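Example complex used in Figure S2.
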Amino acid sequence: MYQTTYHRASSVDEAASLFGKASEAKFLAGGQTLLPVMKQRLASPSDVVDLSKIKELIGVEASGDTLTIKAATPHYDVATSDTAKKAIPALAYLASLIGDPAVRYRGTIGGSIANNDPAADYPAALLALGATVKTNKRSIPAQDFFKGLFTTALEDGEIITAVSFPVPAKAGYSKMRHPASRFALTAVFVAQTKSGEVCVAATGASQSGVMRVGAIEAALKANWSPSALDSISIPASGLLADIHGSAEYRANLVKVMAQRAVTAAG
Amino acid sequence: MGVEGIGARVVRKEDKRFITGKGRYVDDIKLLGMTHAHFIRSPHAHAKVKAIDSSAALKMPGVVAVLTGQQLVDDKVGNLICGWAITSKDGSPMKMGAWPAMAPETVRFVGQAVAVVIADSKNLARDAAEAVVVDYEELPAVADVHAAIKAGAPQLHPEAPGNQVYDWVIGDEGATDAAFAKAANVVKLDVTNNRLAPNAMEPRAAIADYDAAEEHFTLYTTSQNPHVARLVLSAFYNIAPEHKLRVIAPDVGGGFGSKIFIYPEEMVALWASKKVGRPVKWTGDRTEAFLTDAHGRDHVTHAEMAFDANNKITGLKVKTYANFGAYMSLFSSSVPTYLYATLLSGQYNIPAIHAEVVGVYTNTTPVDAYRGAGRPEASYLIERLMETAARQLKVDPAQLRRSNFITQFPHQTPVIMAYDTGDFNASLDAAMKAIDYAGFAARKAQAKSQGKLRGIGVSCYIEACGIAPSKAVGSLGAGVGLWESAEVRVNPVGTIEILTGSHSHGQGHETTFCQLVADRLGVPISQVSIVHGDTDKVQFGMGTYGSRSAAVGLTAILKAMEKMESKAKKIAAHALEASEADIVIENGEFKVTGTDKAIALPMVALAAYTAHNLPDGMEPGLKESAFYDPSNFTFPAGTYICELEVDPGTGKTSFVNFVAADDFGRLINPMIVEGQVHGGLVQGIGQALLEHAIYDANGQPVTASFMDYAMPRADDVPSFNLSHTTTLCPGNPLGIKGCGEAGAIGASAAVINAITDAIGKNNLEMPATPDRVWRTIHAA
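Predicted assembly (1046 residues):
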């Protein structure tokens, strides 16, 4: 009753076609969420369509003021990419903090954002940097892509092909690791665009998933320095609480991680 | 000592097969016709089992049988036992709730088995298990000790009113009260010793193989003590008489105590293999490990320490509630009593001690010995108290300890233990020097200028190991003796097999034990092999736990070696026409001292087996055995000092330095000892900062996977600075004290003392998570 049929797609079109023909298919990228869930028998797709070997989905490219990471690029590749480190060092740094080495060799940016775990790292970067999610059907701005816990704007069968990031003037990421899972207990990505706009996104904190932090954005827009946030108090309401961190603690972390991200951004 | 003798840093013989993937664990074993077991486990913490409908499952492909707890009852399979009888202060025996291997009527913790599916493959068994319908009637549950002893709390066992297992006392209450009445200062402390999940790398597993022709069972299992497993399975569970049951513990991937005990799964596998007429294999997964491997610790304690005007300790009062979970596991009763309260004197001269321990049932996984077993709880309590006292009395914590150290040996404590030897000043001095204790104040000020809170924490631990004299533990209620056996077989070609009742599940016996032989005979360790873990090969043994393998197991080998050497010398003397008294053993040869006359060991061995020219009346062969029963526990002790920084913004702890100065007596292989200390320290640090097996108020486990239960990883811990000060143990001829548990016993107090020093607040519970530390810093 838990049998599944594995397909290794060689192109995005083939993957979409395989998905369409199956009764209850799932796309597989790095398998860091889907495979454990299948092992626990909490998911039992009829077909698994593997995207991770599709060549057109792997790679990191910079062009003008845009850094593009293709969807099936593993975190390790991003963390060690000279192109990524040159264009948006904070993004390469973020990738180096995801999970552990085994996760980073397998997990992909596309899989991370499609799953939209409320404590995943990449959604904070996409939101703060104003990234665009490219799919086989359309382009979706990050602010419209993330729709709450484990929910995105993706339609059934839609395949993420790449994420493009406008290169910011400054960006920084600071993460308090969850001691067991190594997701973000709370982490904050801060970015200042070349036109001076400030965008701040926190992950691991909100019950609704990745979130913008308006109060911090306003303070940093007025004064891009850690001390600009000294008097800010983040409300604990609506924040996650579990055995590793109370809502009050996470509220504190939103501010402290933002200050450290600003320091890191310079 | 020679390059491979006692004291040499010999690379572990067993590691070649482990690191090349050639270890042979239970799950690697496949028998012809083998079936696979999948247990159906309760999702409820407390419930009546009203009905089990397996009709649909039995029709599924590959399903051989679905067996339930009622069938165990029908077949008169015994309940699980607790092997150490504890008597309450009112003279009554401990209250034992019946623990059937699968519950026929009532489940009392999440994960308790109610039935088992036997099928042709693991996945078919798992599929069929989903088709078994168990009708439960949920009952109110209780997980917390204080809630469990309240009037009106849900009751677990009719045999144990008020959920109380026992109310046990030790020490002189009158003398202790008198000391407190005269005290110049009293220091009080409440501490919780957090519940831990042992998490050996290899989950538990069992393969049972019933041979109908011989009416004989073979059990392959992940055991730290296969002979004890056979004894218990035979004597108490009606599985098979001992001569019809062979227990084999092959390579075992870690135990930490959790693989001492007899669990339901191996019992059921044995019983089921006879019922279905085929071998039955069960391999636990990680979730089952979290739910069913005996947990460790879980104490709630109030303690008070009395001091005179000169800051000398005059008395100690302790009251501890020990959470045993839903049932009494094999040695659980001894852990918070004779393995805990007997160590409450620590390294200190305390004239009067009184301790009371209340054992409590709750709807949680059973709790039993976990690395250190009672001694970490005692050491943590005493060392937190000493630190608290130093702060309250405004004296240097190291100096307060030093001024109360026991310095004369032997020393009889007021709580049974008689310490044989030690030099507590030496280990404290070594640790203080290693960490530059004198320079700490300047480093703290420097850290403060960078916004960091720096702290230093001392922990002076002592433990009772090498368990232990059979007569003594018998008088305290143990159901077994705690000696060890050994056999030395010199083969006709001169190679040597050492059979030991100890069991290695990571400790390195295959190397360490060979080093004794190399040391005595001067032969390379490649000519020696260690045989263990099979009741058909080794006559008997008590297994490995309580840091006893070297102090007790290796001493048994020494005793057998002495017998073998004595006979070999007689043969050599006969062959060399010399006096036996003139024969010395060097470099694998028996020499006539002061001459160049010699005969090599293989020639002596060959002579023993050809028996063509032996001394008159001598039996052929060269094989000797010994049982060794120590005269006392051993008492490893030492000082750990931890220096760390706390980030006030996040509450996160970062280690600056961690020094350990241990006195383990004689070291056989310092490299292996260091590995043991590293592992123990990491487990102690894990308890202090990360690990906690949590239940909600209804008895649902919150931390049943590595996504929630925080195991220490390499980057969570510092590089350790280890050193040794040595006083030889007078209780065994090799002077060994044991090193397996020390790190886990001493480390947690050092860490918590350092954090509380850093943040300037004394009350902080383990694990000191960043959230907890941050809230403590910012608490009013």
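The first strand of chain A starts at residue 5 and ends at 8. The longest helix of chain A spans residues 247-265.
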